[in-house]
Design goal:
The complex is a heterodimer.
Chain A lengths: L1 H27 L16 H8 L1 H34 L2 H16 L2 H15 L8 H25 L2 H9 L4 H30 L2 H6 L7 H10 L3 H38 L1
Helix pairs in contact in A: 1-11, 2-11, 3-4, 3-6, 3-8, 4-6, 5-6, 6-8, 7-8
Chain B lengths: L1 H7 L2 H23 L10 H8 L1 H34 L5 H9 L6 H16 L6 H27 L2 H9 L4 H12 L1 H17 L1 H8 L5 H10 L3 H21 L15
Classes of the chains: A mainly alpha, B mainly alpha.
Chain lengths: 267, 263
């Protein structure tokens, strides 16, 4: 009994540490005060600012367009790369695995900086073209797509592909209609991971972004430096919205997979 | 034979992409690190780094921060992961999700929230720079330590623990001789996922109290000063540290990473 209480209080303490800051901001996002710890009146002005300020909505839209767009490119590249690597001889596969692992273990600062030096300093590419920014995000994401597709390929029963070929399917159509469908769970989770990596990135973005473009990360960092309290408190509202959305999505996803597992156990 | 050949070629676009955007940038950085403004070979950049008290101090400070933050994460995350994985809690997965969910929330938003709360508690955050840095890092990276530890502890076979108990080991001995060694893979991947970012994530300090006293921020300041050579040199130093850690933990050999297992 005592053991159970200790366990529970430990978990509760850690959860408190993890959630108190965000929850505090959430409470204060519904008030008209701009200083945490002081009392204020209930107000929705932060949410009004968040949803009506052109600058903010443009920044949020830009962040998501960049995340989804770069993740789509990364999903295609990473998947095709994983299929190629899987069927290559071991030397080729090992080389590809090694190169793929570099961005995974590397610090984002170094990835961003080195890309910036190559594309902007050496090749004189303008950041305003968005090319360095998108390339940087794809570099960050594609290796994770590759890593989530590869295990799927290993699990796959290769005789199905051979059967399709025996039954007269061309190499391309066997690949698209037999191999690819089996990889979809891996591709989807790789894509989702790519989106969250892009949304969370700060370093690659600062080193490669056009001067006037901001993602949530770079915008928030600038806003905490500045003294613009109206923007600062509107960002509290943004945190709250994102927090609730993430929690809802994750818990819903958990609920769905939990149900599915229960169903499988019943059989 | 022909069929294998055609599928193998699918690797080429990705290989070209990796060479152009991963290998080439690093080679360019290597070149810049060993040349000066006139493009001549020099080790002056490194000599400056290791003789300047400012830069070498930053390196030591970053290492200390990274060690402290990693230690705090382990101390908090291990019991948490252990309780989550080993006890018969109802709704265990929902609880786990609560512990992992913060890693999907943009880290700058979370650090901004932490700053607000800490300011209420402490006043000026610059009075306790080391404490706040470690606190910020721990707060930010904790989920990345809990998840890999949970994954390995969850897979731990109960029969090992029963065998240890049958052979007369008490709880402490069982933990030290059975549970801990078997959870090493999770511990190692958690440590690499916390240690390296702690050395390089300078935004956390910058947001908390406008400090730039960490390895990553040296790159940032050289970047802002258009000093590509010194920035490249710092990148190479960081790469060397990363390479040693990754090699020591065999991160190049494994195809699956714990970060890949997030979803």
């Amino acid at each position: 009994m005592i053991k159970k209480t200790i366990r529970f209080s430990w978990l509760a303490l850690v959860l408190l540490f993890m959630y108190v800051p965000v929850l505090t901001l959430m409470v204060y996002s519904f008030t008209d005060t701009s200083v945490i710890g002081t009392s204020g009146n209930f107000s929705l002005k932060n949410y009004v600012t968040l949803f009506t300020t052109e600058e903010l909505s443009e920044m949020i839209r830009g962040t998501f367009v960049l995340a989804v767009g770069s993740a789509a490119i990364a999903a295609v590249l990473g998947t095709v790369g994983a299929i190629g690597a899987f069927y290559s001889r071991s030397a080729g596969r090992r080389a590809l695995n090694f190169l793929n692992q570099i961005p995974v273990v590397n610090a984002e600062v170094v990835t961003g900086f080195s890309l910036c030096v190559l594309l902007i300093v050496v090749f004189g590419r303008s950041k305003e073209t968005f090319f360095p920014l998108v390339a940087g995000h794809v570099v960050l994401e594609a290796p994770f797509v590759y890593l989530s597709v590869l295990p799927r390929l290993k699990q796959m029963d290769n005789s199905i592909y051979e059967a399709a070929r025996d039954l007269g399917a061309g190499a391309a159509s066997a690949l698209f209609r037999v191999v690819l469908p089996q990889l979809i769970p891996g591709i989807v989770s790789g894509f989702m991971l790519a989106v969250t990596l892009s949304l969370d990135d700060y370093f690659i973005t600062t080193y490669t972004k056009p001067a006037t473009f901001d993602t949530i990360s770079t915008y928030v960092v600038n806003a905490t430096r500045g003294s613009h309290t109206e923007i600062k408190t509107a960002l509290w509202a943004l945190s709250s919205v994102i927090f609730v959305l993430i929690l809802a999505v994750v818990l819903a996803g958990n609920f769905v997979t939990g149900k599915r597992m229960e169903g499988e156990n019943d059989r | 034979m022909k069929l294998r050949f055609s599928r193998k070629q699918l690797g080429i676009p990705y290989a070209v992409f990796l060479v152009c955007f991963v290998a080439a940038p690093l080679l360019v950085v290597l070149y810049y690190a060993f040349t000066n403004g006139e493009g001549r070979f020099t080790v002056q950049n490194f000599a400056n780094f290791f003789t300047s008290p400012n830069t070498i101090g930053t390196l030591c400070y970053s290492l200390a921060v990274a060690v402290a933050a990693t230690f705090c994460c382990v101390v908090i995350a291990y019991p948490t992961a252990y309780i989550l994985a080993r006890s018969n809690l109802r709704r265990k997965t929902v609880l786990l999700v609560l512990f992992i969910a913060p890693m999907w929330i943009n880290f700058t938003l979370r650090v901004a929230a932490l700053k607000e709360v800490l300011t209420v508690l402490e006043g000026n955050l610059a009075y306790h720079p080391f404490l706040n840095t470690v606190l910020g890092m721990t707060y930010d990276f904790l989920p990345f330590m809990i998840l890999p530890l949970y994954t390995t502890l969850e897979k731990l076979d109960d029969s090992y623990l029963e065998a240890a108990a049958d052979l007369g080991a008490d709880g402490v001995v069982t933990f030290l001789k059975v549970t801990l060694p078997l959870s090493m893979p999770g511990l190692i991947s958690g440590v690499t996922m916390v240690f390296l970012p702690s050395m390089t994530n300078y935004v956390i300090l910058d947001m908390l109290y406008n400090s730039t006293y960490i390895m990553g921020s040296l790159i940032g300041s050289y970047f802002n000063a258009y000093d590509w050579h010194s920035g490249s040199m710092i990148s190479i130093v960081l790469l060397a540290i990363i390479f040693v850690i990754t090699w020591a933990t065999n991160g190049f050999g494994e195809e699956e990473t714990s970060r890949g297992a997030i979803l």
